[in-house]
Amino acid sequence: MPDTWRDIAARKQQERADRIPKEWRLPSAHKNGSNGNVLDVPRKCGLLTTQELSITEDYDATALVAALTSRRLSSVDITTAFCKRAAIAHQLTNCLTEIFFEEAIARAKALDEQFTKTGKPIGPLHGLPISLKDSFKVKGYDASIGAAGLCFKPAETNSALVDLLLAQGAVLYCKTNIPLTLAALDSHNNVFGRTLNPANRLLTAGGSSGGEGALVAMRGSLLGIGTDVGGSIRIPAMCNGLVGVKPSHGRVPYAGQEAGSRPGSSKLGIESTAGPIAWNVRDCELLLKAIGEAEPWVFDPDVVPQAWSQQPSLARTGSSSKASQPLRVGVMRTEGHSTPLPAIQQLMDDVARQLQSPALPSWNAIEIVDVDASILGPQCLKTFNGVISIDGANYWFDLLAETGEPLSPWLQSRLKRRAPKSLDQVRDLKAQITRLQTEASSIWKESGGYWLTSDSKANKGDRTLDIILCPVAPHPVAPIDRWNTTNYTSMFNLLDFPAGVLRVRDVSEADLTGELPQSPPLNGWDKINRELWTDVDRKVYLGSALSVQVVAPKLMDRKLVEAMGVLEKALRPLSLVNARGSRL
After folding, report:
1. Which of 198, 167, 165, 194 is nearest to 178 (CA)?
2. Which of 270, 285, 310 is the endpoint of a domain?
3. In terms of residue numbers, what domain contains 357?
4. Cβ neighbourhood burial of 50 (10 Å; 0-12, 13-18, 19+)
5. Distance between CA 154 and CA 283 in Å, rounded?
6. Which residues are annotated as a binding site?
7. Mean pLDDT within 358-374
8. CA-CA-CA-CA torsion for 537, 512, 565, 357, nearest 10 degrees?
């Protein structure tokens, strides 16, 4: 009799547990944080040495690379510290799937020895530990993506990006949890269980790169790599108060993933992309620059043959920029399908006000333009939903049937087996995507008809936006299994605009006082969104992250990251909120 999914899950969980050394296991007294917050447990549990605490808390990834290349720290010490902290993070949040700590430490030792022998690092990521979403294939380990039918079938080759990272000197040490089907916004599956938000375990850690979000938030990794086809990097970044970047398709190798679909399916729908989740923008830039300068098109033929240094830049000239143009920022407050709740409206007001503050340095001059793209949002959602259901979910239902595995609870009322779409239907959807991408290109131009404000002193039609700011979601970080729409993120996958997320500040008492409009909801999604304000104790949101999404034109990934760096500094004052919750 073949194993049931329960048998397979039990074996898989035992395998994972056995890969954590006994001396790294937490006493049960440390596993329950006050108010569901476990972020300080690694610091207090006594398992990390003073040096390991310093390595994991006093550096970012960029500083660790500098310490490695100057030989102030060894890769063995750094890798051991992050393996231990990842083990602690996992015991608190259930964020890991595959663990290969022993292999990672052995690789770190070999890299140290080679550096001593040659005096040269392998590449820009030499000796740096990097974590990966479970969908990446690492030779010798499963890429089960939480499905029992894919367990104990180790990969025979690496994903393209894995090979590139290894060639650049990175140390890979673990993979992280995801939702079943990779199409949910809360990272739960029957094989590995649910990943918890380390700052508030009543709120979601997000999906589908939720394990990465939780691990990086716990500083069990400083640089994690997720994937994103509808928000799966940006949503966990928001949920865990981090920075995340979804590149354009064609910038980062994606080939060789376990994507939960038949080979070639992505060419019929929306291409997923891989990108970083980190604590700051410069670490995201570190990774993307290392990838972009490594001739990534050699690893994946879908990648555009253009190095990072060749990509369009903001070309800002620093303190001597009197003649330079200001950073022109479009503020898009709604996508027209689900109206942001009061806390999100207040956030966008605060952000727009701060970016126009006269206190900002002159070389950071920023011009704000209000943008209304609400006519496109509902169209993008309809087309996106049509595209992601091309195969009628038959791949997943067939896979689950092999072991008798059920859908996760959140999916049971949302995912149904349907007939695959016909060739004509697929062609029509692709035509809709092309039409929407063509129309959306007008957003960036003053003459496009989407700008609500214009400068009478300028020649109308001459100006273009550098970036757009908008919400990540129409609600704060949601309780478990209650994330509403993905349209604030998925529309930019459909349009193939690169997009990132920046944490701005935390939810305060003052953010919870706003009330909903008296007008009826726009639709069913808007009604559900309002319930996240009326049918929950709003205090659950206190202290959770409020984040903003930054969007750039297609293939302008370097420009996006550079603009995010400017905004990261400009928005920093908004993180200063006093104990009473009033804005400083």
Report:
1. 194
2. 310
3. 318-575
4. exposed
5. 31
6. 182, 208, 229-232
7. 81
8. 180
Task: Tell me the binding residues for substrate.
Answer: 182, 208, 229-232
Number of domains in the chain: 2
**Residue 34: inside a domain:** no
| Residues ≥6 apart with Cβ < 8 Å to 217 | 39, 197, 198, 199, 240, 241, 242
Q: Which of 290, 310, 330 is the last residue of a domain?
A: 310
Catalytic residue at 75? no
- 232 is an active site residue: yes
Mean per-residue pLDDT over the chain, rounded: 94
**Single-letter amino acid code for the residue at 379:** Q
Instruction: Identify residue 351 by its one-letter amino acid code.
Output: V
Among 131, 187, 232, 272, the one annotated catalytic: 232
Examine residue 35 and state whether it is found in any structural domain, yes or no: no
Domain check: are 283 and 420 in the same one?
no
- Distance from C-alpha of 430 to C-alpha of 385, rounded to nearest angstrom: 12
- According to DSSP, the residues that pair with 469 across neighbouring strands are 331, 550
Write the pLDDT tens digit of every residue in 315-339.
Answer: 753 433 444 678 999 999 999 999 9
Instruction: Look up tokens 């207040």; give the residue.
Output: 346
Instruction: Match 């309809």 to its residue by tokens.
Output: 382
Domain match, 61 and 120 both: yes
Residues 90 and 214: beta-carbon distance below 8 Å: no
pLDDT digits (tens, 9 = 90+) for 135-146: 999 999 999 999
What is the CB-side half-sphere exposure of residue 166 using CA atoms within 13 A? 16
CATH of the domain at 223: 3.90.1300.10
Average pLDDT over residues 238-263: 96
DSSP state of 193: E
Residue whose pair of structure tokens reads 């992250």 in the numeric block: 545
Structure-token pair, residue 335: 């996508």
Other beta carbons within 10 angstroms of residue 116's beta carbon come to: 10
- Pick the catalytic residue: 208, 338, 508, 544? 208
- Hunting for tokens 């129409």 — which residue is that? 474
- From the candidates 12, 84, 133, 559, give the one annotated as an active-site residue: 133
- What residues have CB less than 8 Å from 296, skipping those under 6 apart? 164, 251, 252, 253, 303
